[in-house]
């Protein structure tokens, strides 16, 4: 499904415009229908892949309504993050969970903007009420400790040639 950014609900960063969405191979859909689909499938058996486009039609985000990321998205997260995203943890991303920064059951998307590689230990730590984690931009994580200190992690760039 393709949905214009402007057609998204206000809580998702849109303006609830009447811009048409599109289902590939089927044609345009009304903005209201696209918004309902973007909020998540109503059945666990129904899964949508989506691409959000800006006013010029350029892709700005993509993801799926499924809980588990499809293989290509998982590969993207592993390649982007390389290791667990907790400060100074070096467990390889391929051995980590693809964790939702904002929990899926609370409306968090299964997308590169909301997933990060976390080893099981730090995945569980994130769920402790004294800790918090945000992802202000894809791949940038901000951890807040119980002592109200913040630690920001960004991905390690690959070495240049």
UniProtKB/TrEMBL annotation:
Question: Residues in domain HNH nuclease?
Answer: 72-124
Q: Region labeled Disordered — which residues?
A: 129-161
Tell me which SMART domains the record gives: HNHc
Keywords per UniProt: Endonuclease, Hydrolase, Nuclease
Entry-linked InterPro entries: HNH_nuc (IPR003615)
Top-rank taxon of the source lineage equals Bacteria
Question: For this protein, what is any one GO molecular function term?
Answer: endonuclease activity
Q: What is this protein called?
A: HNH endonuclease
Species source reads: Nocardiopsis sediminis
Please spell out the taxonomic lineage of the organism that makes this protein.
Bacteria, Bacillati, Actinomycetota, Actinomycetes, Streptosporangiales
